[in-house]
Amino acid sequence: MPEIVFGIAVPHSGMLGQPPKEWPEDGLRDRAKDELWYRNRAGTFSELANHRLGENFEAHLTIEEHTARSMPCAAALNKMRKAYEAAKPDVVVILGKDQKEVFLDMMPSVAVYTGEETYNDPPQRKVYPAEHKVTQPGCTDLAVHIIKSLEKTSFDIADLMQWPPISWLMN
């Protein structure tokens, strides 16, 4: 039976993979959106900015501030990478939330990929891009074991046997 030898969690933030000089691009993108969320409140960029007027955002919009904030994050990610490498896992189970990247028209509560290979192509954004298509072997036996174990506890599981052709990963 496999043994869990290591666990790691990283927040899903594109800023972790971007150089600080590119952070303002996210602000430009956000200004163009019709709806943004902040603490269970939806609004346009202008509406949310007005709601947070007293928080002195201007002081945080310099390259020096961005760089200072990115340095501890980069150091933490490097520490996690070294710990992962030291653990030398035989298999890696990755948990993540799909954000209309694989599932465009529906969203299963839990999907387990049981395919023979996993893919990491360069995504539509340049955050954490692979320089070329990367293929890793899958672990179908473990994936099926996870599905069967979760089904025994009444989870409704989607068995993702191959990447959907609508996915940006297959383009």
What does this structure look like?
- This protein has 171 residues and is α+β, with helices and mostly antiparallel strands.
- 32% of the residues lie in helices and 13% in strands.
- Strands 1-2 form a two-stranded antiparallel ribbon.
- β1 and β2 form a beta hairpin.
- The longest helix has 25 residues, at 63-87.
- The mean pLDDT is 83.
| Helix amount | 25-40%
Percentage of residues in strands: 5-15%
The structure class reads: alpha+beta
How many beta strands in the DSSP annotation?
6
The figure for the number of domains is: 2
Shape: globular
Mean pLDDT: 83
Strand order of the largest sheet: 1-2
What is the topology?
Blueprint: H1 23-32, E1 36-38, E2 41-43, H2 45-51, H3 63-87, E3 110-113, E4 117-120, E5 134-137, H4 140-152, E6 157-160
Parallel strand pairs: 3-6
Antiparallel strand pairs: 1-2, 4-5
Q: Which characteristics define this entry?
A:
alpha+beta; 32% helix; globular; 2 domains; 171 residues; two-stranded parallel sheet
Task: Summarize the entry for a quick read.
This protein has 171 residues and is of the alpha+beta class. It has helices at residues 23-32, 45-51, 63-87, 140-152; strands spanning 36-38, 41-43, 110-113, 117-120, 134-137, 157-160.
